Here is the input.
Amino acid sequence: MVSEKEKQNITANDNDSKSSVYNAMYNFGEYIFSVFIHIITGIKRSFLAFIDRNEARIQAVAKAVGGWFKKLGASLARPFVRWQKAMKLGMTVVNRIKQEKGTGAAALAVIRNIGRALFGKRGLAYSLFNYALPIVCMVIFFNIVSYANSMTYALKLTVNGDFIGYVNNETVFTEAERIVQQRISYMENNTEIVTFTPSYQLEMAGVNDSLTKYQLADKLLASMGAEIEHAYGLYIGNAFYGALTEKDKIDATLDSLLDVYRTGSPNETVAFESTITYEPGLYLSESIVDEDDIIKTITSKKNVATYYTAVSGDSPIAITDKLGMTISEMAALNPGFSETTMVYIGDKFLITQEEPYLAVTVTRTEIYNENTPYETEYYDDSTKYQGSSVVTQDGEYGIDRVTADVSYINGVEVRRKVLNRVTVEDPTPKQVAMGTKAPPTDADYSIQDVEVGQMYWPVGGANGGLISEMPYGYGGYYGHKGLDISASYGTPIYAADSGTVILSKWYGDYGNCIMIEHDNGIVTLYGHASYLHVYAGQRVTQGQQIADVGSTGRSTGNHLHFEVRINGVCMNPINYLPEHEFASWCVRY
Here is the structure.
């Protein structure tokens, strides 16, 4: 029996032990919070003033937080305090049993005491289980959720009544069926077409259970019961070219085709325009092709349609001679094409040409100089008559250093992406003096005895040429500003009236061109000449030879393009030519 005094001692010891644990947990909580406060206050001194002004509030918060930590510590320590108390009480009982009944009975009591302390209703194992059970439940819950997420719904595919596998959607079967049809090579006398009848059922399947289109294609082929082999399917673009048991020779041939275009330039990429792939899988034995047959195909040439763009000096005969074609061959591709077809710079004509079977794209980083356009500056000049203009300073193109990625297909440029542009030389503006002087009212317009306003026929020779095109609005084509007078190459061109040459040089589409400012302010223009006999600033008289007939600039044959301008506006030249002269040369019209 335990005496009353022993009970009091045990109770006192238990209280001391409990108090000790509570105090330790309380002190620990206060210590942690104190450290936290000191860290906060040390971050920045400016917080000290705030703390001083709110000292009472902070103390209240500290007391509340300290109390929370104290309660937390007590709650966490409670099972262990009970376990410690039970152990001490048990050892007291064991000591008493040892004194009363001996060591054997005490040993049994120790075992029972330890069992109750560990596995009793309030034992250590029971307490730990209470803590661990929620954690274990959470782990199990998350595992269940993860497993559920790893499961997906898929379509159970049955083809012709046989289970094949799972697919994510019906498109996979459609693509697989297309692949199978590509792989099949039918005999000439075999008219039987293989068909697949699919059916679907929605089921839950693992994330890795679904078939890809190529895996499904292999299963469909295997289900046919035909003779099949493992091989490499050759695809160029989306087209199936056959199955191969070996592909080393084809790879070597493809590399050699690309080597033709490789130059070793920095940042150069050389590749086929069409994607070439091998798809390993099951193929019908009839689909197996020989490497040499594929090599013969990919190294061949093919005829493709393209366009020829006309350049300066082109005519129907010149184009056909340049292309090695006949007029009839060009006419077959371009209806209406003939020897008399008018050809202008930039016109496009359909032709055919040979190209490699496999188009090759080459992209290189190129550095080159590029001309930049100049501006034209106009200013008034009171020394020149109204309607006239003189170039006092020729414009000069600027120069930019350009870095660009340039792409070619079979050697023909198709894309250009500018990466960088640096100005090397600025352009020089073109300066043009615009006449503002009023034309005289009583000037001697011509050294010849002609009526005022009438001009000399500008083309000489045996017949003086024939009018081949009138200005727009008077029978000529849209945009035509003057009178075209056809004549043989080298026929003299005369000044229509006396005046000063204000331009004598190549002038865009006009080719070799002359402009004369006459004493009455009218300006005449003479285009497409083969040779120029006068220079800018030179004084010429009516009827003086100034050039020879030619076909320079945008021209389709030897002729003179003659314009009459008043204040920059093009007039009908017929109105300024003598009537008797005009009648004798206008037999074509």
